[in-house]
Design goal:
328 residues, alpha/beta, Rossmann fold, Arc Repressor Mutant, subunit A, 2 domains, 7-stranded mixed beta sheet, two-stranded antiparallel sheet, 46% helix
Length: 328
């Protein structure tokens, strides 16, 4: 038997706690239906017997307390809720326990914003880690020694796993289920829970808002220039001149402040505008392409797909506003 432990953190997100518990329990049902023995012992573990989730909307009863768990095969760290720093503080006592389990051979998997608990252990220093795209900037500042896997749904770093945001956690759950059982059981589970087993990126869900939590005034000014003039031809030289910085120094400071080169930032602003166009209008691809400052169809398509994971046509078909017929 394999023991699967789901840590129920203080300031827990209920939507990230129940999926691993339910998936591995259901996998046992699939195995038994095939005449095979159930494989998983699944449990909730916590700092106390009952933990409130989502501001007290739910209460989760723990099967065991942390001091009763000396070893497990797979430990899940679900997403935390509310203010990140406060949630981490509430779960401080669990951090040494997580490290100890890993040192004893347990595999660790963080789900969505549970990546902050994982990063607190230091186990992913120098490694890749995925989280919800909306928390990338906060995560990078808090854990500079961890490489955020930008756009990734899942990461696998030698017995340490992480998932992207929200429902992306299901992709990691299915990945791990296949690893612990086989492809057939994972496919059955994907169909049962109606989850796309093949998705490997959260890029098309990402909303780019620009990294502006830094204090470099000249770079903030240049970001504002880009966002107000992205539909025109913008060069790095022009931007550097407008903020009175040499090009070399400007590029260095821009990268430090935003984690993008100026060209990458311009591209992301343009593609974000294109996404909004596709979502809110009935314009065709060429019309949107010209609206956001591109004239080369191939360049637009390649950049759009690199950033979103979808071609412009695929994105438009997936997210374009649909006309809903009115029934009188």
């Amino acid at each position: 038997m394999k023991r699967v432990s789901v840590y129920v953190p203080e300031s827990a997100v209920i939507e990230a706690i129940t999926p691993p518990y339910r998936l591995f329990k259901t996998a046992n049902d699939f195995l038994q239906a095939q005449g095979r023995k159930p494989l998983f012992e699944v449990e909730y573990v916590a700092l106390k017997k009952s933990v409130n989730a989502n501001d007290g909307e739910y209460a989760v009863k723990a099967n065991r307390l942390l001091n009763e768990v000396e070893k497990t095969d797979l430990l899940f760290l679900p997403a935390i809720y509310g203010d990140v720093d406060n949630a981490i503080k509430q779960n401080t006592k669990a951090i040494p326990w997580i490290k100890q389990l890993y040192c004893k051979g347990s595999e660790i998997a963080s789900l969505c914003v549970g990546a902050f608990l994982l990063a607190e252990t230091g186990l992913v220093n120098g490694k890749k880690c995925s989280s919800h795209w909306a928390y990338y900037d906060i995560f990078r500042k808090k854990y500079p020694e961890v490489e955020i896997a930008d756009g990734s749904v899942i990461t696998d770093e030698g017995g340490i796993y992480s998932s992207g945001g929200a429902n992306s956690l299901w992709n990691l759950l299915l990945y791990l289920l296949e690893k612990y059982t086989d492809r057939q059981i994972a496919v059955l589970a994907s169909k049962y829970f109606a989850i796309d087993i093949g998705r490997n990126s959260q890029a098309d869900f990402t909303i780019f808002t620009g990294q502006k939590t830094h204090a470099d005034k000249e770079i903030l000014k240049s970001q504002d220039i880009i966002e107000k003039n992205f539909f025109y031809k913008i060069t790095v030289e022009d931007l550097a001149d407008k903020v009175s910085i040499s090009r070399r120094n400007f590029e260095r400071r821009f990268k430090i402040a935003t984690n993008n080169t100026p060209i990458e930032y311009i591209q992301r602003v343009r593609i974000e505008a294109a996404k909004r166009n596709f979502e809110g209008s009935r314009k065709n691809v060429n019309e949107v392409m010209f609206d956001v400052g591109y004239t080369d169809t191939k360049a637009f398509r390649d950049i759009f797909k690199r950033i979103t994971g979808l071609t412009p046509v695929e994105y438009r078909n997936k997210y374009a506003r649909m006309e809903i017929p009115v029934v009188e």
